[in-house]
Amino acid sequence: MNIDIKENIEFLIKKLETASILQQLPDSFQSNINVEFDDREINSLAGYSSILSLSEEPNDTSLSYEIITRLIEYTNGDCARVISAADLIFSRIGNFPGRSLLRERHINPSSRSISPSLKLECVAREAENTAYTDGEKSILLTDFQYKLLSSLDSEESLSVSAPTSAGKSFVLNLDLIRKVKSDTGQSIVYVVPTRALISEVSHRIRTTLRSENINDVIVRTAPFPVAKEKIKQAVVYVFTQERLMSFINSQDEKPFISSLIVDEAHEIQNGKRGIILQNAINITLSRFDKVKVLFASPLIKNPAYFLSLFGRTTNGRYFVEQVSPVSQNIILVSEVKNKPKEVEISLLSRDKKITIGQVKINFKFREGKIIQRANFALSISSQNESIISFSNGPAEAEKIACHIADLSPDFQPSNAILTFVDFIKREVHREYSLADCIMNGVAFHYGNMPSLVRSGVEDLFREGHIKIICCTSTLLQGVNLPAKHIIIENPMSGDDPMTRADFLNLAGRAGRLLQEFHGNIWCIRSSEWKSNCYEGERLQEISSAISNVMEDGGSVVQEILGNVENISGDIDIAKAEAALGKLYHDYLVDPELSFVEQYRNEHNSKALDETIDAIKNIEVSLPIRILENNQSLRPDHLQKLYLYLKSKDSLADVVPISPYIEGAKDRMEEIFKAITICFDWDVTDRYRSWVSYLAYKWVWGESIGKILSERVIYMKSIDSSSNVSSVIRGCLSVLEEAIRFRLVKYFSAYIEILKHVALEAGYNKESESVEPYHIYLEFGSCSRHALNLMALGISRFTALHLENKFDLPKDIEAEEYLEVMRGMNIDSMNMPVLCKQEVRDLLS
């Protein structure tokens, strides 16, 4: 391209980007900047976009999309030449969702002024991207979606990297339908990183199956294997990595897996849970060697890494998709010196910072940052668009939401909001601040919230009843909650500055497919952030958490084994213990130590050898299967527990007993005490007493409302000024992190080792009848009926309301409960409207 022409095009693109961002500003922002284009400039931009749309380079495709969509917005859809060009360009780049949005908003398909030859080109592109799902039924897909669907059909192992909004979930639904229709008796496991995602994914799967009138597919969210002979068409399990471990180690029924889908697979790089995920996948693939596997990750540079890591390179394929059907504007907002009611706006585009200019705002950008964020969100919401304000923790999210609520006294709640608020006050706590927030059009959302409350917030947001949600990093782990705007200030991932990969994952939530061409990420005071995660390469290279631990030879492993004098204050003990458990297991499997070489580099060789020598000195007499099943725990701690149980004169004194039997609470407390000693869980007697009490109430099936109410009353009796919301957050945190995660894995190991000790002592029958407290602790009930209901995906709230309505045999499958519920008069039951609706959604 001629240099003068290129410079002119660059000038016009920058000018167009400035005009586009000015249009994105809320009405309350006032700017004197004026940008106008003449017909010649518009024609030049549309023509350049058309040329770029013929390229196969991702950057060209993305720029073509950016130019034409900004032209559509600048001309308000009133320029026939732009609309005709856009219709063609969307077809060329395979962005049919964007084309649908264009046609819905701006044109009548029958009146499009495109020449016959270009119409033929559009028809040809449609034919290339059309998938036939059932006879004559066809679906038009993007280039990425079509490639993914074809690959899922032909490949045994597949790893894909794509933007957050690329439409992966839609394709996985299509593939699921294809799988269950093509063959009977399949067992498909869908792994998600958090419990928050289980209900969302299982609901999506059930909805898809229902839309296709497929009735013989079992969908389960609890790790209770379905007997092979009882599977009519297929079974789909939706698990976290921890539930997958419980599933493959189940003693009740022999599990099997035909397909494994690992969503948000990049989480393998994150801490202890990344190591658990790697262990779960390793064991699954070793025990079910013919399983088909998919790894799906957002915007990673090296998706082939998963195929190499799990030995699937010979029969695997990988690819990277960089183009998203919705794009994002990274907008930087900073203070203006001596002008508290003005901000400086810039756009980060194509690795360049474009200064838009100074604009006036209707609030002071100088007050506390919480109130600033609240005012900023409200200013944007004046356009009635959906907004996510990202927070670094639950307390911050709640504070911002409460400030927004205080500033929104005129909001008129819908009937759906009134119903949800009534549920919160009755079933959670009458003073839970979420209720007041939602009554004023804003909500907060974090991972430790009860599942039905969290999903209720998500539904209100998706359906437009509330426009603003203050969210934590749960959003990074795949929760499908897109919004027009995302507001971020100095984002963190835990205690560390947010990584570039996490920022891109979060930013990808901005912009709703089929609703808008662009989403906006408002980066507040980015120059003060602890990391410049808002800029840099779009694709990020990942490696596993265990590889990261071993980068320096495994110094943290040596630290926790006592090979150095003092443990560093900032060491992640849980991650180090999980790394130790995996390394020791791998050493037992491969005593020749060939596995060690994958971690060796020119800088860590000496330290690596010292780490391995320390591991080899650990003396453990437990079977390798137990160590494999509990790799996230230290092998020396497992051995300590084994010796403790083996030393008991009577195993009957240390066996968990049914919560319904007298003495169960005392027995649980004794086991808890032994666990804290054997696993070096450093807690005070007071904390241990509280956690034990809370765990027992939880296992017994005490309602969350009663648990929280008792805790609030107790804390206020100690200090009358105790903040109710803070008490609730603390209690929910202990429930999720100490009980539903930490105690679950400890009790799981305790029960498995106890059974082993019983078998060694010749107590065969006793080893088969140990109460599964790890299941009770995770799901919050010891009732067979409640557990079966929760296995179907029903929330604990609803399961506890329903558990006394059944009289079914002990050995019956969970799906039989569906038939009983279909005969019930749900409307006449004395339970919350939200719970009734949950049952209707499951049955309909």
TrEMBL record:
Q: Name one Pfam family in it.
A: Helicase_C
Q: What is this protein called?
A: DEAD/DEAH box helicase
Keyword check for Nucleotide-binding, yes or no.
yes
Sequence ranges assigned to domain Helicase C-terminal in this UniProt record: 403-568
Q: Does this UniProt record's set of keywords contain Transport?
A: no
One molecular function GO term is:
nucleic acid binding
What InterPro entries does the database record attribute to this sequence?
A: DEAD/DEAH_box_helicase_dom, Hel308_SKI2-like, Helicase_ATP-bd, Helicase_C-like, P-loop_NTPase
Keywords per UniProt? ATP-binding, Helicase, Hydrolase, Nucleotide-binding
Q: Which SUPFAM superfamilies match?
A: P-loop containing nucleoside triphosphate hydrolases
Tell me where in this chain the Helicase ATP-binding domain is found: 149-317
